[in-house]
Amino acid sequence: MNYILRLETENDYDETECITREAFWDVYRPGCMEHLVVHKLRKVEAFVKGLDYVACDGKKIVGNIMYSKAKISGEAGKSYEVLCLGPVTVLPVYQKKGIGSLLINTSIQRAKGLKYKGVFLYGNPNYYSKFGFADAVMFNVQTSEGENAAYFMGLELSRGSMKGISGRYYEDSAFQTTPDELEEFEKRFPAREKHVTDTQLK
User: Fold this and answer.
1) 144-165 pLDDT, tens per residue?
2) Which of these, 95, 105, 90, 82, lies nearest to 153 by C-alpha position?
3) In a domain, 35, yes or no
4) Any idea what the CATH number is for the domain that residue 69 is in?
5) How far apart are CA 84 and CA 118, in angstroms?
6) How many CA atoms lie within 13 Å of 140's alpha carbon, on the beta-carbon side?
7) How many domains does the chain have?
8) Residue closest to 86 by CA, chosen among 135, 41, 134, 126
9) Dihedral over Cα of 80, 45, 37, 173: its sign
10) How many percent of the chain have pLDDT more than 70?
11) Residue 137 lies in a domain
12) 3-state SS string for 13-80
């Protein structure tokens, strides 16, 4: 099938949040919070609107990818701006059809034309390595807690663009959600039962 990629518009916001909720429900935790992150990201200065793509099957939105500005805090107060990739959403019934790859490859090519030196994310190394992402330790970048983790990955947007940059990575505060704000946000959606599954974070 042929899928159309286009930039998200304000008219898409509710539908995109619904498909994000559907895609992430019970995957990493009982219920999910990614749809709230999507909602919050659009309201912050860090949001990169020009990289906010939706994938459509006809008029139906079946996938979405978002980017936001993040920073790497180095020694002597130095700070470097990079991109944070995520969330990436594909409706469950449309997964394993190449939509995620289409969203990632298209947006990365667009990002290469912007001023940013690198892209970072938290994700499955087996999946994101296909797009050139490598363990962030290769770029001398650690998490905000100073940790090196296999699921924390980075990508140079041009050869050697991350050279001379090192430090701790900080994403926007929009990624931080509280149980109370999630409970309030959930009132916008149909009630749904939460379950514990084997895929969830321990």
Assistant:
1) 998 888 899 999 999 999 999 9
2) 82
3) yes
4) 3.40.630.30
5) 9
6) 12
7) 1
8) 41
9) positive
10) 98
11) yes
12) HHHHHHHHHHHHCCCCCCCCCHHHHHHHHCCCCCECHHHCEEEEECCEEEEEEEEEEEEEECHHHCEE
Angstrom distance (rounded) from CA 110 to CA 169: 22
Taking only the tens place, the pLDDT of each residue in 9-41 is 999 999 999 999 999 999 999 999 999 999 999
Q: Could you give the CA distance from residue 14 to residue 160 in angstroms, rounded to a whole number?
A: 39
Domain that holds residue 106: 4-186
Residue 192 lies in a domain: no
Examine residue 71 and state whether it is found in any structural domain, yes or no. Answer: yes
Q: Which two tokens stand for residue 99?
A: 């939509």
CA angle in degrees (0–180, nearest 5) for 200-149-105? 80
**Model confidence over 44-55: pLDDT tens digits?**
999 999 999 999
pLDDT value, residue 199: 67
| Closest by CA position to 103, among listed 3, 28, 202, 197 | 3
Distances (CA, A) of 91 to 113, 114, 123, 125: 29, 29, 18, 21
SS3 135: strand
Q: Name the amino acid, one letter, at 158.
A: S
Identify which of 26, 24, 28, 27 has the alpha carbon closest to the alpha carbon of residue 195. Answer: 26
The pLDDT of residue 86 is 96
